[in-house]
């Protein structure tokens, strides 16, 4: 949800949509620096979250941050911006910060993964009292983007000695685009068997729920409305009824309508409502499944 008009307004928007969990940007995702959080807004945000019962709440880090870069200037900017993201999340009492691991600008994948882990370690060391989690988002694999294989995420976690502050977010569009076929019975089982074997479900903190405009294995990150893309409705039904994921948030990152562009506007977004209604229908219709599903 948008934080236009103040971070507390995101909670108001979530409440009128009947949301159970929430993701926000704590600053403009396309800028390096953001305005300091207003103290009264922080208080209002925390109060409204507590009153609403919305849980968990996470932020998404700026898209400019690249923890895998070998450029000293970009690396310094990225680390500073990442620490700021952690500070903002900690101030707001968020569970964690979702971040794309990074893009390899030079060198090997292995070197890029080591650079990502080193940057995360430095950020955590800079804020030893923070409890905010770093939530690595599985990516679609465009270009030299890292994090599109479970093994990439496992390697970062291993470089960090299995720190309990590191979690994972799986994006349904990214899974499909990167080659994990969650649309078939066999593919769904194989995907989550591989995740459990390589990373472990105890690391899984959240899902991003997005259909895909592009085909399986395209490695192109283009989100589509639930059930309107190449994934279809059935995999979302399976996720919503899979007992292994009970209680995990499924966060929408689908296109919003123009009403969401109006500064300070708090109103039902018809596209958000369409996607939420679809997911609620799928959750109501169907039986629970387990590891053998």
Short description:
This protein is α/β, with parallel strands linked by helices and 293 residues long. The chain contains nine helices and eleven strands.
CA-based gyration radius: 18 Å
Tally of contiguous helical segments:
9
CATH topology annotation: TIM Barrel
| Spatial shape | globular
Identify low-pLDDT runs: none
SSE sequence, one letter per element: HEHEHEEHEEHEHHEEEHEH
Can you tell me the CATH superfamily? Divalent-metal-dependent TIM barrel enzymes
- Provide the spatial order of strands within the biggest beta sheet: 1-2-3-5-7-8-11
Average of per-residue pLDDT values: 95
Whole-number tally of structural domains: 1
Class of secondary structure makeup: alpha/beta
Give the biggest beta sheet.
7 strands, parallel
CATH domain class: Alpha Beta
């Amino acid at each position: 949800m948008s934080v236009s008009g103040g971070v507390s307004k995101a909670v108001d928007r979530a409440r009128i949509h009947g949301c159970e969990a929430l993701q926000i940007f704590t600053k403009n995702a396309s800028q390096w620096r953001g305005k300091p959080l207003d103290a009264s807004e922080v208080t209002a945000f925390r109060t409204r979250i507590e009153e609403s019962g919305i849980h968990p709440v996470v932020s998404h880090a700026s898209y400019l941050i690249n923890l895998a870069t070998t450029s000293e200037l970009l690396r310094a900017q990225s680390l500073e911006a990442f620490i700021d993201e952690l500070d903002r999340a900690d101030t707001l009492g968020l569970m964690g910060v979702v971040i794309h691991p990074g893009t390899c600008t030079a060198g090997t994948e292995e070197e890029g993964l080591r650079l990502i882990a080193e940057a995360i370690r430095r950020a955590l060391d800079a804020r030893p009292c923070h409890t905010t989690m770093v939530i690595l988002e599985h990516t679609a694999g465009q270009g030299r983007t890292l994090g599109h294989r479970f093994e990439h995420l496992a390697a970062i976690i291993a470089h960090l000695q299995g720190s309990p502050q590191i979690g994972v977010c799986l994006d349904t569009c990214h899974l499909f685009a990167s080659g994990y076929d969650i649309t078939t019975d066999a593919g769904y089982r194989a995907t989550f068997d591989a995740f459990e074997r390589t990373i472990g479900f105890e690391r899984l903190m959240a899902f991003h729920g997005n259909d895909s405009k592009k085909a399986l294995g395209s490695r192109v990150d283009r989100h589509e409305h639930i059930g309107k893309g190449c994934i279809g409705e059935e995999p979302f039904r399976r996720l919503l009824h899979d007992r292994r994921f009970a209680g995990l948030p499924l966060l929408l990152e689908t296109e919003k309508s123009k009403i969401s562009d109006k500064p300070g506007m708090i109103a039902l977004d018809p596209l958000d409502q369409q996607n939420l209604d679809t997911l609620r229908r799928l959750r109501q219709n169907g039986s629970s499944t387990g590891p053998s599903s």
